[in-house]
Amino acid sequence: MNLKQLNYFHQLAKHKHFAKAAKACHITQPTLSASISALERELNTDLVIRNSQFLALTDEGKILLSHAEKILFEQQALTQALSVKSGELSGKLKLGVVPQSDKDIISIVKRFNHKYPNITLVLRVMSNEQIYQELDSHALDIGLGFVPPNEASFSAYQFIATCQNRLAYITNQKSITADLETCSLSQLDGQKICLLSENMKFRQLIDTALETNQIKIQLVLETDCMLSLATAVKQGLGGAIISLSSAKAIAEAFQLTYLEIVGGELSKTAFITRKTSMTPATKAFLALLDEYQQS
């Protein structure tokens, strides 16, 4: 057994498809299949349930996957630690962010890139649930997501740079916002509103806030794409409720106007990491984050 075989197996478990996993590994499908078969012979057990295609991992395959994730993570951490000794920190830092947060992630990323130019930053937008899942499987180094109300139940994680998520109403109707800087949720009662998809945590928090305050909006569009949401507002389909930081950026880019929603704070967001098993790049990012907060 070697690291290459473990990576092939890990990619197969991730993609659940032989051809896609082979493509991710930059090898042919027969080469991938042969590697998995060799691993099964060496361990004297079936790892994958398959006929002409991948169906699932066996129980033994799930055990191997758990160990493979940790081994591949430690390889990454070792490579980064050695890079420091030979020069500058290098490697990858994998970040996952929820679609809506009041954190200005790009400005922090820019500072990190300036200080550690040899680290490739991989930034993906994902659901809050996905962030915790990928932190658990070591597929992610740092998440930017919502802090759970029962934080004590998430003792395996640390929550850093926590902030309250503020809401804003964005519109193309400049006459509505001409003399105002803020509004309340109640003022949006009966308005035509565009929202992010209901499977997103941010949307669920908005729905809860509207229901709690007995506010009924006219939902005219829901989408999982911020660009589509902004375009819909620009073309007059309706206004939108998004995070304040997103509203500022979209208003400038699309020549729209926004009002901060007073009393519209949602659940807190924070940078989330595992308390253990952190790569040198993760530790460097957290140190820079601490500097950023103090500046």
TrEMBL record:
Gene3D superfamilies documented for this protein: 3.40.190.290, Winged helix-like DNA-binding domain superfamily/Winged helix DNA-binding domain
Residue ranges occupied by any HTH lysR-type domain in the UniProt entry: 1-58
GO-annotated molecular function: DNA binding; DNA-binding transcription factor activity
UniProtKB keywords: DNA-binding, Transcription, Transcription regulation
Superkingdom of the source species: Bacteria
PROSITE patterns attached to this UniProt entry: HTH_LYSR (PS50931)
SUPFAM superfamilies (alphabetical): Periplasmic binding protein-like II, Winged helix' DNA-binding domain
GO cellular component annotations of the record: cytosol
Family per record: Belongs to the LysR transcriptional regulatory family.
Name this polypeptide is given: HTH lysR-type domain-containing protein
Organism: Catenovulum maritimum
